[in-house]
Amino acid sequence: MNRSPSWAFVLAPVFSIIAVVVAKVEGTLGSSSDVQLWDDIRRVIRPSAVAASKPSFPLIRDFPSVVLMIAMVGTCFIVWRQWKLFHAALPAVVNAGVLSSLGPGSVPSYQARHKLLLMDRLVKPTASETALEALFRRVNGWFNVVGKFSEVIGAVAVILAVMLVIGENHGGIFRVLLPEGEAPAPWLASTYSSWWASINHVGGVVTYGFISWFGMYVILLQNAVGLICVYFLIGLEATADMNYDFLAGDQCGGWAALTKAYKSVHFSLVLHGLTLSVLVVILGVGIPWLVLLMALWVCVIPLYLWIPHRMFGRVAAAARKRHLAEIRKPLEVTQATTASLQDAYHLSVLRGEVERIAVARLNPLRVRRSELPQVLIAVLLPILLTIAQIIVPLRFGQQGSPAAPSATTTTTTP
């Protein structure tokens, strides 16, 4: 994973060129008049403010597919960056003195949360290794397993991609743009038939299917690696001494390298949340596997955000308590023996240090204020859209539930 990430950026123009060439050959590329992004947004928000949408969706109008392609390429880069940053973070925090081994033959301090993850059974140090080394060994073994079973992950991605294509065929697409008063079935059938990636256009559906497969494969791979990394972070609490350097100039207590690495997790959540939001709006929640995907999203969010945050919150709280205790001892002595201006200055410095540590925000994995809006929006938006469509059949200005289109129905595209 130490190779250049340029391969990830090459994917964007390669897939774009292939899609454009295929659409041009099959006559589904479209023209400049089909660029209707702003009008389509207005049709979603205020359907009466713009002319009704025609059931014609060539490639040049399919903005959601462009978003999904960008998300796929962005995920490729994030996966590479996560591997690189997490690989560099561990030596950095060890060198900073905030992470150290418990010592050879030491017994890990497993709590109930660690036992729930079977760490007391899976992470057992031998006589010649420390508990931290045993954790490294176990985690590296899992990384190797992920590598060996990458074909299985690819097969699962194939199934998801096929389900996506089938769901779009039977459930309809762009139903959010269905004009008011329009008969749902004929409009959705014409929309799907004209779509550049429908099963009526072999080259388009094959290209779209491959892009979907690759994107899902990378997302599955990233989440497999991400869950292993979260397991490792939780294991550090029991298998290593974790501290906080209050004199570090990185404002992260010596954990700056890990903070930088974990930002990539936040970026990936933003990217995946926006991708899910696009799928929910375009496809709706009538497709069972999309509902399952949303359920998994709800489950993994606490694993990536809440659990590591809570763990490092405990580490920071213990470090704050320990450091304040160390300061208060000389503070009490100085208060009792103050007899000169130098002693008074020393006393004021100690008091200032106590106040600084008492109010310091210590958690290195917390979401920064500048990042909070986009993270919250990306995380909550797909969940809120799903709940809204379940409770209210959300149609953004169109009442009723459209009937499923048939792929064999053909209508002359205006």
What does this structure look like?
It is a single chain. This protein is mostly helical and 414 residues long. 67% of the residues lie in helices and 1% in strands. It has helices spanning 6-26, 37-45, 63-95, 112-116, 119-122, 131-148, 150-171, 184-194, 202-239, 256-283, 288-337, 341-359, 372-391; strands at residues 99-101, 240-242. A two-stranded antiparallel ribbon has the order 1-2. Helix 1 runs antiparallel to helix 9 (202-239) and helix 11 (288-337) runs antiparallel to helix 12 (341-359).
In short:
The chain has 414 residues and is an all-alpha fold. The chain contains 13 helices and 2 strands; from the N terminus they run αααβααααααβαααα.
Measure the end-to-end span: 49 Å
Radius of gyration: 27 Å
Order of helices and strands: HHHEHHHHHHEHHHH
Q: Regions with pLDDT < 50 over 5+ consecutive residues?
A: 1-5, 394-414
Shape: elongated
Distinct helical segment count = 13
Q: Summarize the main sheet.
A: 2 strands, antiparallel
Report strand order across the widest sheet. Answer: 1-2
Number of strands: 2
Question: What is the beta-strand fraction?
Answer: under 5%
Overall mean confidence score, pLDDT = 78
Features:
13 helices, disordered C terminus, disordered N terminus, elongated, two-stranded antiparallel sheet, 414 residues, 67% helix, mainly alpha
Task: Give the helices and strands, then pairings.
Layout: H1 6-26, H2 37-45, H3 63-95, E1 99-101, H4 112-116, H5 119-122, H6 131-148, H7 150-171, H8 184-194, H9 202-239, E2 240-242, H10 256-283, H11 288-337, H12 341-359, H13 372-391
Antiparallel strand pairs: 1-2
